[in-house]
Amino acid sequence: GAVVSQHPSRVICKSGTSVKIECRSLDFQATTMFWYRQFPKQSLMLMATSNEGSKATYEQGVEKDKFLINHASLTLSTLTVTSAHPEDSSFYICSARDLAYTQYFGPGTRLTVL
Amino acid sequence: QKEVEQDPGPLSVPEGAIVSLNCTYSNSAFQYFMWYRQYSRKGPELLMYTYSSGNKEDGRFTAQVDKSSKYISLFIRDSQPSDSATYLCAMSNGGATNKLIFGTGTLLAVQP
């Protein structure tokens, strides 16, 4: 099956710093990747849709200047949480869509902002 | 009303039981239906993918879609303790953006 990786799997940072999370499709090309956020015991909340070579499309209520998304190649998308605050602490998950329009998810990144 | 409704559980069954997980939805434009399994603190793993109405079987798993009733199901036969996880239904209309709309997930515990 298709494999999507995320790095890092866990990060702890101080308030005010920026954190970058990478999402890679390892064995297929993904023109579209998605970024989700998940709070404990809740379902996934779509944050943004990332298209290779173009600007990301953000969901309503998601601050695009705070959550910077770059999709520079067909196998890599990055999410940068800028000036992170404790309320940004969450589980961030990416997915990559293959040519059959199936989404495969990464293992997630747990962000803790102190 | 949410677009996708799913009983959050928890659902506890003995090992070997048949498990039935369900979702209802309100958007008749949904054409693609998926079931994901998520272990604690891990990303969702695609289990079943179905287009339109009908049944699909893969090993111990069977997915059913009834578009007329806007109702989808996942059956797990001979359930195992390793099946203990949260099961998320997801669906989309297959449009250009292909956004998935998720249910809240059902927490399943299979007791040995």
Give a brief description:
The complex is a heterodimer of chains A (114) and B (112). Chain A is mainly β and 114 residues long. Chain A contains no helices and eleven strands.
What's the arrangement of secondary structure elements?
The complex is a heterodimer of chains A (114) and B (112).
Chain A: E1 4-7, E2 10-13, E3 19-25, E4 32-38, E5 44-51, E6 57-58, E7 67-73, E8 76-81, E9 90-97, E10 103-105, E11 109-113
Chain B: E1 4-6, E2 11-14, E3 19-25, E4 32-38, E5 45-51, E6 54-58, E7 61-66, E8 71-76, E9 85-92, E10 101-102, E11 106-111
Parallel strand pairs in B: 2-11
Antiparallel strand pairs in B: 1-3, 3-8, 4-5, 4-9, 6-7, 7-8, 9-10, 9-11
Describe the structure.
The complex is a heterodimer of chains A (114) and B (112). With 114 residues, chain A is mainly beta. Chain A is 0% helix and 54% strand. In chain A, strands 2, 4, 5, 6, 9, 10 and 11 form a 7-stranded mixed sheet that branches. Chain A is globular and about 40 Å long. In chain B, 0% of the residues lie in helices and 54% in strands. Chains A and B meet through strand 5, strand 9 and strand 10 of A and strand 4 and strand 5 of B.
Main attributes of the structure:
heterodimer; A: 114 residues; mainly beta; seven-stranded mixed β-sheet; 11 strands; globular; B: 112 residues; five-stranded antiparallel β-sheet; 0% helix; 54% strand
C-alpha Rg of chain A, in Å? 13 Å
Structural class of chain B: mainly beta
The proportion of residues forming helix of chain A, as a percent range, comes to under 10%
**What string, H for helix and E for strand, traces the elements of chain A in order?**
EEEEEEEEEEE
Specify the oligomeric state.
heterodimer
Alpha-beta content class of chain A: mainly beta
How far the N terminus sits from the C terminus of chain A, by CA atoms, comes to 37 Å
What is the rounded distance between the termini of chain B?
Answer: 37 Å
The level of helicity of chain B is under 10%
How many E-type strands of chain A? 11
Round the mean pLDDT of chain A to the nearest integer and report it: 93
- Kindly estimate the percentage of residues of chain A that lie in beta strands according to DSSP: over 45%
